[in-house]
Amino acid sequence: MCLLTFNWLAHPEYRLILVGNRDEVFDRPSKPIHQWDSGFFGGKDLKSGGAWMGISPEGRFAAITNYRDFYNLKENPVSRGFLVKNFLEGSMSPFDYLTEISTKMDKYDGFNLLVADTEKMYYLSNYGEDIIEIEPGLHTLSNELLNSDWPKEQLAQEDLQELILLDKLHPTEMLDILKSEEIIPDEKLPDTGVTLIQERALSAQFVRLEDYYGTVNTTAILWGHDGSGLISEKFYVGKEEAENNTITFRTK
């Protein structure tokens, strides 16, 4: 994923409320969210074999975004998607898992990783200093550190908060946010090692970078305190909606 806004343990019905955009090279092959042979629900990167987000029947959740730093790319990095896959298929506690990952973060290009069980969620970035426990409430994550001041993150949080306040927590409404194509002024753009044209395009929530890279799907998750939940996806071809995919799940 490349832009997430989520509400954790701060709603009477839902443990996790999340909406996220996945930005990718258009011709990179992937499989929509489905139940893997190992049991968890998530999409699959068919090129490297990892996942970008998922939930397991055991009540484990994980999601990852790239930390964008094109000045310091690794020569032969390990695919970041395995950080999600391995947690969802494992049994380590969220904190212990991130403690283990923290000893080998230099094997990966920049990442932001969220992992959770039914009670605790933690965050780790190989551009951050420590493992952080996620407090109950609203949060955002993009290609900077957690809860950055990037305008598209602030707008995402405001939009999700409005849905919660208006009690519009349904995939139809949730999948309609994170669509802003507003480009922020050049003087407010970060410097992440890409060209100015690319930096402008990437500052929008809904990304279109010429004809090769951009937002390929939006995902909404509702995970109830009772273990029931759903994951809904909206896919795009260009700027047009291609198809929707919704699955229900139950965790322990």
UniProtKB/TrEMBL annotation:
Pfam families with a match to the protein in the record: TANGO2 (PF05742)
Protein name, as recorded: NRDE family protein
UniProt organism field: Litoribacter ruber
